[in-house]
Write a structure and sequence with these properties.
410 residues, alpha/beta, Aspartate Aminotransferase, domain 1, Aspartate Aminotransferase, domain 2, 2 domains, 7-stranded mixed β-sheet, 15% strand, binds D-malate
Length: 410
């Protein structure tokens, strides 16, 4: 008899975005004439930049010629891409990295979900609340959490760090010891950021407690304001305690193409039961070389074009486009009397539901009355209840139309 991994049975029936897709499909089946605008899952709508397409085409051509054909590539990514990542995303910010600290992958979702494998099952983890559900669900699957407490809407043994209106959506340091801390800034879902001084407190906590910061910077390219750190490694001491996840998905339209990377500095250490230190970089290399065969050559050839002059210009245009959508949503909702957060340095707008409406009720009402789909805050955790997330990744036309409908139909 094959036994199930019972940790999976602790999870809610479906992943948040699958549940939303299910509800939307059901609504569409019952209302075939409804013109639905999707501002739910953070999926991009702008096409790949032409520089990227050209890079991919050249990569495909090379794969079709015997002189330039390539078989398995290095699991951690081609040097040509890694060098450009360091040169463009880190060196200008005063962050020094060596090539073997960068691991190219097929997505930050996978990396953030897989990285927990390197940690002992007895580690105590902390997440902000609300939080991107992948951090929690992947740890539940691994057995690092207790049961789901339905009343609290939280798993036992996870330390939740509330991000509320009262604390300006900024998590406080944990009151009890934690070993693994997931932070995402600019934040998904609240769209808020932390200053360098605020991030420094987390680095100091991690150094004092020998904890690890799992820092998701997937949205760093959307930072508009000066002085907001783009990388945790801009903070002194972070190389000892932090790992950073980055993605081409939202920055360069790679949600369907898949390319990302993770930075694991050589100084970051985890400990065995005898107190001996082990390099997280070496462990991640071991994991990736065993379980992953690298991102396809044409995709990496496309990703490197993001750093060409043409690529940079085109990506800037795309990001400007989405951030104008963010402004339209943020200001439109404010005009309509809603309380909103985010949308200044991030492509997400986090709004309070009106009249303390439950967030799934608001989801149903918005879909039913305005034919607009967003993401209910409760899907991101107990402290997301009473909130709702809209993304700026729609088309301009749909974004304008969605705000118009919210103003007139809600
Ligand atoms: C989101 O909507 O939160 C993101 O699209 C999820 C993801 O990037 O996996």
């Amino acid at each position: 008899m094959a036994l199930v991994n019972e940790n999976y049975l602790k999870l809610p029936g479906s992943y948040l975005f699958s549940e939303i897709a299910r509800r939307v499909n059901e609504f569409k089946a019952n209302n075939p004439e409804a013109d639905i605008i999707r501002l739910g899952i953070g999926d991009v709508t702008r096409p790949l930049p032409t520089a990227v397409v050209k890079g991919m085409q050249e990569g495909v051509e090379e794969m079709g010629r015997s002189e330039t054909f390539r078989g398995y590539g290095p699991e951690q990514g081609y040097q040509f891409l890694i060098e450009k990542i360091i040169e463009n995303d880190f060196t200008p910010r005063g962050v020094e990295l060596s090539a073997d600290e960068v691991f190219v992958s097929d997505g930050a979702k996978n990396d953030t979900a897989n990285f927990q494998e390197l940690f002992g099952i007895e580690n105590i983890m902390a997440v902000t609340d609300p939080v991107y559900p992948v951090y929690v669900d992947s740890n539940v699957m691994a057995g690092r959490t207790g049961k789901f407490n339905i009343e609290k809407g939280q798993y036992e043994t996870i330390v939740y760090l509330p991000c509320t209106e009262e604390n300006g959506m900024k998590p406080s340091l944990p009151e009890t010891h934690v070993d693994m801390i997931y932070l995402c800034f600019p934040n998904n879902p609240t769209g808020m950021t932390l200053s360098k001084e605020e991030l420094k407190q987390w680095v100091d906590y991690a150094r004092e407690n020998r904890s690890i910061l799992l820092f998701d910077a997937a949205y760093e390219a959307f930072i508009r304001e000066e002085g907001v750190p783009h990388s945790i490694f801009e903070v002194e001491g972070a190389r000892e305690v932090a790992v950073e996840f980055r993605s081409f998905s939202k920055t360069a339209g790679f949600t369907g193409t898949r390319c990302a990377y993770t930075i694991v500095p050589k100084e970051v250490k985890v400990y065995d039961s005898k107190g001996e230190a082990h390099s997280l970089n070496q462990l991640w290399l071991r994991r990736q070389t065993t379980k992953f065969n690298g991102v396809s050559y044409p995709v990496q050839a496309g990703a490197v074009a993001v750093f060409s002059d043409e690529g940079k210009k085109q990506i800037k245009e795309t990001i400007d486009y989405y951030m104008e959508n963010a402004r339209i949503i943020r200001e439109g909702l404010q005009d309509a009397g809603y309380t909103v957060f985010g949308g200044v340095n991030a492509p997400y707008i986090w709004m309070k539901t009106p009249n303390n409406m439950d967030s799934w009720q608001f989801f149903d009402k918005l879909m039913g009355d305005a034919h607009v789909v967003g993401t209910p805050g409760a899907g991101f955790g107990a402290n997301g209840e009473g909130y709702f997330r809209l993304t700026a990744f729609g088309t301009r036309e749909n974004t304008l139309q969605a705000i118009e409908r919210i103003k007139t139909r809600m």
